[in-house]
Amino acid sequence: xxxxxxxxxxxxxxxxxxxxxxxxxxxxxxxxxxxxxxxxxxxxxxxxxxxxxxxxxxxxxxxxxxxxxxxxxxxxxxxxxxxxxxxxxxxxxxxxxxxxxxxxxxxxxxxxxxxxxxxxxxxxxxxxxxxxxxxxxxxxxxxxxxxxxxxxxxxxxxxxxxxxxxxxxxxxxxxxxxxxxxxxxxxxxxxxxxxxxxxxxxxxxxxxxxxxxxxxxxxxxxxxxxxx
Length: 228
Prior knowledge:
By secondary structure, this protein is mainly alpha-helical. It folds into two domains: 11-132, no CATH class; 135-228, Tetratricopeptide repeat domain (Serine Threonine Protein Phosphatase 5, Tetratricopeptide repeat, Alpha Horseshoe). Helices cover 79% and strands 0% of the residues. The protein contains eleven helices and no strands. It has helices at residues 2-29, 31-75, 79-84, 93-99, 104-119, 123-132, 140-154, 158-171, 177-191, 195-208, 218-227. The longest helix has 45 residues, at 31-75. The radius of gyration is 30 Å and the shape is elongated.
């Protein structure tokens, strides 16, 4: 019994030695390739760290600082100035997009530019910039899809407008934005001759968002949809 156990231990030790020898032989035969691969990994990781922390983050901070005046003009509804010439030597949203591409500030400037063009009546441009905006979080996807719905509605592209309003509602539950776009969606359903879907949208506002601005006169819209 002891002899069999000792034999098994000896065989295991032999296997370990053989594996070690094979590994050493492999490394000796492929030393340059192995070290090269390790060096490449170090360069990639190190390069990403340098790019992200020493270039991209400071670049984004500069872009956000430059965008301050454009945001100020946007808040004043001075949309044309916000896009191209906000004053004080600061960049407009369009310059932010061009000069600081790939930054969070540039991405945000796409949204601002889209809304600016929407308010200026340039709906195709609004769609282009809003579509380029990468929205995340709980609110911005709702805002993006809702603004796209507005732009397509202005172009009288009703199916696209409905689609984006539906996406805005599905993107998140916000006590202000969700009932706001539900009401727009209900009105659009009415316009397209679909009172049943309009009724569902209006009734959802009354049920789920009773204390919002959108619900203040919602009974009128419910009654109208029931008659049609």
